[in-house]
Amino acid sequence: MPEISVIVPVYKAERYLRGCVDSILNQSFSDLEVILVDDGSPDGSGGICDEYAGRDSRVRVVHQENQGQSAARNRAMDMARGSWLCFVDSDDAIHPQMLQRLYQAALDTGAAMSMCRMWEAPRMPEGFLQSPSGTCRVLEMDEETLVDCLDRGEYPGWVACAKLVRREVARGKPFTPGRVYEDNEAVCHWLLAAGRLARIPDALYYYRTNPDSTTQGGFSLKRLDYLWALEQILLTYQQRGFLTLRDRFWDLYVREAVGFYCRAKYDLNRPDIARQIKKSVKRCRREHRLPMTKERFELLLDAAHPKLIRLYWPLEGAVRTLRQQGPGGLWKKLRKLGRGDTP
After folding, report:
1. Which residues does 90 contact at the CB level (< 8 Å), separation at least 6?
2. Residue 214 DSSP SS3
3. Which of 182, 208, 234 is the last residue of a domain?
4. CB count in 10 Å sphere of residue 162
5. % of the chain exceeding 70 in pLDDT
6. pLDDT given for residue 313 in this prediction
7. How far is the C-alpha of 53 from the C-alpha of 50, rounded, in Å?
8. What is the mean pLDDT of residues 173-189?
9. Angle, nearest 10°, between helix axes 143-151 and 243-262?
10. Which residue of 9, 176, 266, 326 is surrounded by the most CB atoms within 10 Å?
11. Contact at 8 Å (CB) between 199 and 148?
């Protein structure tokens, strides 16, 4: 049985698929299988998959009707024989030593997951194939570590790519079919189940940025799935008792919801979608009993009721003055305002 199963969902990928598969088959770590899932691709991708299967016995191909990336990944996970799983997108590529480095880092540290950094660019950067030199760092997946990673912009749970994960960990939480940003939800569970993460500082995964993709392009209704993913993450951390981390993702949820609300209402001229987002925020807060801080309230009020916010600020200032200086202080402030003085 192979030690590592590399899973590649394939859809409309004929332009870059050969480069992707070649980068996997040319790894310094050879005890692997490559599972290519042709997800009903309408171009020549399916034929390219079969071509590689005929040339290399390590390549296995599945053809299915289009069901989306999550379903394709899940099907490959079910048939994977490796003890470890690695996910690669069909238009990306990996460094020749990526699997070897990730595998060794996991073995050396006893971690059930390992990861490296990504190069994100429309074309493969110069120097990507240079020999890596960094040593791995072990991160315990406790709340303090995860909060620190999130605050420094190094949260390890956003994507499934550039990682090596124990098969039983990934199978314990498969991807949710029909969703975008499904990585965010699944990998959150993987981190907690793994308990320990080995992180390599080298960028050994090349992520091809595509401005036309669902997650990188302009605003579309599919991007609202990001709110779904954030809600699932904050709920997971709430259930674990990681309340500081929950609040961080609740803040992120509110900020993203406000941004989506404004885009739906003003850019797309879809007040119906804006109302739906507003209802989603209220439902999320009510169902999960999430705290509403003053900052979150003001952010939501400003987006949903731009006229009302003009009344809110003077009232909020008056209440603050009353609390800090009492009725006398408030009266002095009102008299200044009445004379036209700067408060």
Report:
1. 8, 9, 10, 11, 13, 16, 17, 20, 45
2. coil
3. 208
4. 25
5. 83
6. 40
7. 5
8. 95
9. 30
10. 9
11. no
**How far apart are alpha carbons 168 and 236 in whole angstroms?**
19
| DSSP state for residue 122 in the 8-state scheme | S
CA 90/CA 213 separation, integer angstroms: 13
d(CA 117, CA 271): 40
C-alpha distances (whole Å) from 244 to each of 83, 139, 251 are: 34, 18, 11
* 60 & 190 share domain: yes
Q: At what angle do helices 243-262 and 271-288 cross, to 10 degrees?
A: 170
Residue range 1-21: average pLDDT? 97
Count of CA atoms in the C-beta half-sphere (13 A) of 29? 22
Tell the residue number behind the tokens 């079910």, with chain if given: 78
CA angle 339, 341, 343 (to 5 degrees): 125
Tell me how crowded residue 309 is: count the other CB atoms within 10 A of its CB.
14
Q: Give burial (CB, 10 Å; 0-12/13-18/19+) of 45.
A: buried
pTM of the model: 0.85
Number of domains in the chain: 2
| 214 in any annotated domain | no
For residue 312, the model assigns a pLDDT of 40
Average per-residue pLDDT for the chain: 88
Specify whether the CB–CB gap between 191 and 92 falls below 8 A. no
Domain span holding position 17: 4-208
Asked if 170 contacts 215 with a C-beta cutoff of 8 angstroms, the reply is no
Q: What is residue 266's DSSP assignment?
A: I
Residue 203 and residue 254 in one domain? no
How many other β-carbons are positioned within 10 Å of the β-carbon of residue 153?
6
